[in-house]
């Protein structure tokens, strides 16, 4: 950007929009507008609530690779799947695991001579059809994730040797290998599956287009892909309080501008937009009768430039390193999010909610340095053609860049990255896809060279093994299961990444992560970009959302059973 006029003009446009947002945030993790409801607001009985949704999943079979989009997790999964642990805000404003209402309390854990976790399931816990949630449901879930086909992420489950049932309400989980993040298993990412319904079934066929059962406060009434998802109360949910709304509809509005228009017009009562520039501008200006929260400093999101390490020209480590040196990431991040207090690029693949785990500065050495680009490319046998683009053996240093279509902020980011890369001798073309196609097909099957998207934590575990272990590379042989979409292949990193998963000692885990960070940075397997902040806006017609209570892992809709509509 510092040498290209068009890039400077684009930055000026971005900065001009961002400056308007100066009043929308402060130094706290969460900033909220003055739209919060008073505790004594009168509410109506029942009612139909319509919420805006920017994306939808490719499928609702949460254990399978087609379910990668976060919007499916936030809207339907957390509201219908029972889980052993919730993630709850603590008195010191941090978030931590607490046993959910599924359990009778903290499980018992033994670590010597082997790790054994014993759960006690509440006698009140039942599926929506009235059948009790039992130990066999834990057995079925473990066996399916460990041994099933096309699994999104087997991390942790592969370390379990057996799940035994002392009785119907007492699962005993014995690990072949210790697993420090055991609380996330049977927890938020997948939840627990009903064995009495799914035993012997094809999971994709049984769940992919939605399912009629539930172990949460809501049941999926309908899913019309491309239009909406409708939830209704689970009449057999044993929690408290029970849902009081008649229906909750997540209306798909993929375009951010249209999403805001529908929100301002009252057509949708809450939205959870990605931080587009016009979103920040409108929050700053204020929208009458609404509340908002911004989580800018401690988020579960890590947006990055994800590189397919198997596709030319990025199948060369030298080329990946040179590409990293071609970018001024700090300038991009400050332009996009500076007025939210985010001014520097992320320098590791761990989200900021995990603090200083590992080496948070692992990628800091990659600053824009065109001389270093030249040295690396020439050393790898490349030469610039008359058009200024590197070439080698008849191959140009060209790549197709993909992200979710219709996302204005990401499209602006792509434009800046493309201009910076062009100055350094890389030719980048853009071919964006619908979210379902990107996350459900292109990324798992390796149909990309460079991609921009955010990895969003579904637990508080400080682990990136699912993203980078060689055993998690999707292939035709494993039916493209596994989340190592970048095809990162660093065998030396497998050991420290695995130790992060297995070692219960927090300090030793962090040291192991730092070792892995160094290897990932040296390889330039992908390039961290920004800690994508969360924005949540709601109408004061909703009684329930509290200031700063957007759950950083489960999203803002996890407590919808506590919501009501204000009386007219």
Strand order of the largest sheet: 19-18-20-14-21
Number of helices: 15
Shape: globular
Radius of gyration: 24 Å
How far apart are the first and last residues' alpha carbons, in Å?
53 Å
The profile of the biggest β sheet is: 5 strands, mixed
Overall SS class: alpha+beta
Quick one: CATH class of the domain at 301-530?
A: Alpha Beta
Number of E-state strands: 24
Provide the β-strand percentage band.
Answer: 15-25%
Write the layout of secondary structure elements.
Blueprint: H1 5-19, E1 30-32, E2 48-53, H2 70-80, E3 85-89, E4 95-99, E5 108-110, E6 116-118, H3 135-147, E7 160-167, E8 170-175, H4 195-198, H5 203-207, E9 218-224, E10 228-233, E11 247-252, H6 256-264, E12 270-271, H7 277-285, E13 290-295, E14 301-307, H8 317-325, H9 329-337, H10 370-379, E15 383-384, E16 390-392, E17 395-396, E18 398-402, H11 408-424, E19 427-430, H12 435-442, E20 450-456, H13 465-468, H14 491-502, H15 506-523, E21 527-530, E22 534-539, E23 542-543, E24 564-565
Parallel strand pairs: 2-11, 18-19, 18-20
Antiparallel strand pairs: 1-13, 3-4, 5-6, 6-8, 7-8, 9-10, 10-11, 12-22, 13-22, 14-20, 14-21, 15-16, 16-17, 23-24
Helix pairs in contact: 1-7, 1-9, 1-11, 8-10, 14-15
In words, what does this structure look like?
With 568 residues, the protein is an alpha+beta fold. Among the domains are: 71-204, Dipeptide-binding Protein, Domain 1 (Dipeptide-binding Protein, domain 1); 301-530, Roll (Dipeptide-binding Protein, domain 3), CATH 3.10.105.10. Helices cover 27% and strands 19% of the residues. The protein contains 15 helices and 24 strands. It has helices spanning 5-19, 70-80, 135-147, 195-198, 203-207, 256-264, 277-285, 317-325, 329-337, 370-379, 408-424, 435-442, 465-468, 491-502, 506-523; strands at 30-32, 48-53, 85-89, 95-99, 108-110, 116-118, 160-167, 170-175, 218-224, 228-233, 247-252, 270-271, 290-295, 301-307, 383-384, 390-392, 395-396, 398-402, 427-430, 450-456, 527-530, 534-539, 542-543, 564-565. The strands form seven sheets. The protein has a five-stranded mixed β-sheet. It has a four-stranded antiparallel β-sheet with strand order 1-13-22-12, covered by helices on one side. A hairpin with a 2-residue loop joins strand 16 and strand 17 (395-396). Helix 14 (491-502) runs antiparallel to helix 15. Residues 1-38 have low confidence and may be disordered.
